[in-house]
Amino acid sequence: MELRDYGRAFVSRWVIILVLTLAGIGGALAASSAMPRVYEAHATLFVKVETGSGSAYERSQFSLQRVKSYPSLVKSPEVLEPVIRELDLELSLSELRTSIEADNPLETVFLNVTAQSAEPQMAANIANAVAEHLGRHIRRLETTSGDSRVTVAPELTVPASPPAGPTSPRTILNVAVGALIGLSAGLLFAIAAFRLDSRLRTSRDVQSAVGMAVVGHLPRYRSRAGQPGGWASNSKHWMAHRELLTNLLLAGHTELPPLVLLVPASPGAGASFQRGNFALMVAGMGKNICVLETDSALSPAFGQEPDGAGLAEVLSGRADLAAAIRTDEAGPVSYILAGKPEEGIGRSLDRARQAVPVLDELKARFDMTLAESAVTSSPLNAQQLVPSADHTLVICRYGKTKRDDLRRTFAELAAAGNPPQGVVMTGVPLRRRPSAVPLIHRAEAAAGRHSRIRDADVNA
To answer: Can you give the residue ranges of the Polysaccharide chain length determinant N-terminal domain (predicted)?
Structure first.
């Protein structure tokens, strides 16, 4: 994955990232509220040494050497048992030991006593009591008799006071850690979902799937069937179809392909491709165009006449091609309806055999014939049309068509003897549609390398 792929993954799934981050914060708050409050108080002892002889330096060195061993005495029964009796604590000796600590800061004669309790005042009382009894215990152990009398006198210099707040749980730190865990989980989920998501959304997705350029990005559009011509000539929908037409002209050396076949890679992929408007655009160039309806299940681009001859009748010999060609009232566009095909394998084979001369005649009559057909269409499916097609475009739908669908469609068309020349992506949100359309370079088109593209702005 490249850096912009990570950006796409995070932006497209920002909701789940936000939800998991909030879930991490909520979990941290819940855990913090469930944890018991622990208050911590500190008392400080100053260890003073008095001797009958020796210099001040000797007394200082004696104090520094001896004070290092005093912290271990804080957990002795001689210190803690009097504290339990004095404060009437409902704690055992082992329980009190776990809540008491003592340390000696480096190169000092101070002893710091720390006590923990569920109540702030009790924490201070325990710290002061332990410090007091620790000092007495040290005095008993270090006091000797004789000519070189040495007296160690620990004094409580900084008594413990009730703490202002608990030391545990540390809610702010827990929330920060929870937010970090939730955010990390959201980002990892977004990356994993992006890598596992095989739906096509960009030209790079299509390029990596089949190695073919996207020659048109058509925005989302909903219209009533059989009602083309509803766009202004400067609308984004019209411009998108014009960009596709520009690519077709460049691919054909400024000549329109006689038969353009549109093959949807997934159900509904061709819904945003407005065959009627596209045909009107071609007709506006002064070209003679015919829209060939090859799928009786699709709504026709022009005309809604239930009666009359259609493609099925022409292929079965029940009608002449001339009788099936009709002209739209909105403009100089001809069209042939799908008709009512007869079911059966034999009938399908007959229609396939009759399709070649019919399509050849349409190529001779019109500058361009436009047909949309899937592999399951009737009366003519895509595999029956591909051998006669001059330019085949596979239609994929933004965020719906998957890589495997596109690859399978490409393989089926290649097996029929005519690999596709490009991909059209439909249903693209206007804010996601690229501002520049990929145009096939004339020299590359002449060399047949249509998959190599350059970006150019056709609106300039």
So the answer is: 2-87
Instruction: Quick: pLDDT tens for 374-387.
Output: 888 888 888 888 88
Domain boundary among 177, 196, 215: 196
pLDDT digits (tens, 9 = 90+) for 285-311: 888 999 999 888 888 888 766 667 888
- 142: how many CB neighbours lie within 10 A of its CB? 17
CB 301 within 8 A of CB 338: no
CA–CA separation, 39 and 126 (whole Å): 11
Identify which of 425, 392, 444 has the alpha carbon closest to the alpha carbon of residue 206.
425
What confidence tens digit (pLDDT) does each residue in 406-430 have? 999 999 998 888 889 999 998 888 7
Are 248 and 123 found together in one domain? no
* Total structural domains within the chain: 3
Phi/psi of residue 233, each to 5°?
-70, -15
401 touches 192 (CB < 8 A): no
Contact 234, 241 (CB under 8 A): no
- Distance between CA 335 and CA 152 in Å, rounded? 113
> Per this entry, what is the length of the chain?
460
pTM: 0.62
Work out the average pLDDT over 141-161: 75
Q: How many CB atoms lie within 10 A of CB 400?
A: 18
DSSP of 395-437, one letter per residue?
A: EEETTTSBHHHHHHHHHHHHHTT----EEEEEEE-TTTS-SSE
